[in-house]
């Protein structure tokens, strides 16, 4: 074979190799795209399959219970503000409105004096019902002496609507929640179940015969078969506070329902002599 013929053969072979290479590369790319598409479709199908097998709301993040509101029930007992200089009220109406405002509560130091009713509103977040198995008061520290100085806003009780009504003596050796109706331990065998979007209001009356105590609520619940615990606090993410009610109104100032002006201990002494007396 001549040298010329040999060179022509080599040239043809090179051209065929380049052509085959050009054909293979797009084919490989197309096959890759098809495999990726099939993988995405298969993955999406698996997700849809598993989502169909699991209860609605299974993928919602966070707790199955949301604390919608925590507030002191209006007219549920006296409010004591230890730092008298930190508050100003124009009249009895203004005093009551402020101590019943959750924003005011969150920004000021104050204690229930003797008794208080808290209303805790909870809502279910998961379609798989959440079951509250226990709700208990838990002191955050040792109780101390009764607070005897400060400004008191006298807020008297009133009737309540239909709710889960519980009561607790925070200064007891072991505080527990009992039913207002019969005095039984409410969560001793009882539960509260919340479906998604379902709301319940739990009314808790707390009392202290004298000591000053701070406390929170601990809730045990079952969510998607798993036991969980959450802490419920007062407005401002602080513990609930309560102290005893000192008889005879010895506080520095008392906003009483009987007068539209704050009363001093001297005013109370004058009122004992004259039932119609009010400071001017």
Keywords:
single chain; 280 residues; alpha+beta; 9-stranded mixed beta sheet; 5-stranded mixed beta sheet; 14 strands; 26% helix
Q: Strand percentage, roughly?
A: 25-35%
Straight-line distance between termini: 132 Å
Structural class: alpha+beta
Rg computed from alpha carbons, rounded to a whole number of angstroms: 35 Å
Low-confidence stretches: 19-55, 158-162
- Largest sheet data: 9 strands, mixed
**Mean pLDDT figure:** 79
Helix/strand order: HEEHHEEEEEEEEEEEEH
Written account of the structure:
The protein is an alpha+beta fold and 280 residues long. It has helices spanning 3-53, 92-99, 102-107, 265-273; strands at residues 65-72, 79-81, 111-113, 115-124, 130-139, 151-153, 164-169, 178-179, 192-194, 199-207, 213-223, 226-232, 240-243, 253-255. It has four helices and 14 strands. The strands form two sheets. Strands 2, 3, 5, 6, 9, 11, 12, 13 and 14 form a nine-stranded mixed β-sheet that branches. A hairpin with an 8-residue loop joins strand 7 (164-169) and strand 8. Mean pLDDT is 79; it is low at 19-55 and 158-162.
Describe this structure in a few short sentences.
The chain is an alpha+beta fold and 280 residues long. It is 26% helix and 29% strand.
């Amino acid at each position: 074979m001549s040298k010329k013929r040999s060179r022509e053969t080599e040239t043809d072979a090179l051209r065929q190799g380049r052509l085959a290479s050009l054909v293979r590369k797009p084919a490989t790319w197309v096959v890759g795209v098809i495999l990726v598409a099939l993988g995405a479709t298969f993955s999406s199908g698996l997700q849809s399959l598993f989502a169909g097998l699991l209860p609605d709301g299974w993928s919602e993040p966070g707790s199955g219970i949301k604390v919608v509101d925590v507030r002191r029930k209006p007219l549920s007992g006296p409010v004591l503000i230890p730092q008298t200089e930190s508050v100003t009220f124009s009249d009895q109406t203004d005093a009551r409105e402020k101590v019943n405002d959750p924003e005011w509560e969150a920004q000021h130091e104050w204690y229930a004096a003797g008794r208080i009713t808290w209303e805790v509103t909870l809502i279910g977040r998961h379609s798989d019902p959440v079951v509250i198995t226990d709700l208990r008061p838990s002191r955050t520290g040792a109780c101390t002496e009764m607070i005897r100085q400060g400004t008191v806003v006298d807020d008297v009780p009133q009737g309540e609507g239909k709710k889960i009504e519980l009561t607790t003596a925070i200064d007891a050796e072991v505080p527990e929640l009992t039913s207002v109706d019969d005095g039984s331990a409410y969560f001793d065998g009882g539960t509260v179940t919340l479906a998604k979007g379902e709301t319940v209001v739990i009314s808790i009356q707390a009392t202290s015969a004298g000591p000053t105590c701070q406390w929170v609520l601990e809730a045990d619940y079952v969510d998607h078969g798993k036991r969980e615990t959450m802490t419920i606090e007062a407005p401002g993410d602080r513990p609930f506070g309560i102290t005893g009610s000192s008889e005879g109104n010895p506080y520095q100032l008392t906003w009483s329902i009987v007068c539209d002006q704050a009363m001093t201990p001297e005013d109370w002494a004058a009122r004992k002599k004259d039932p119609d007396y009010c400071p001017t």
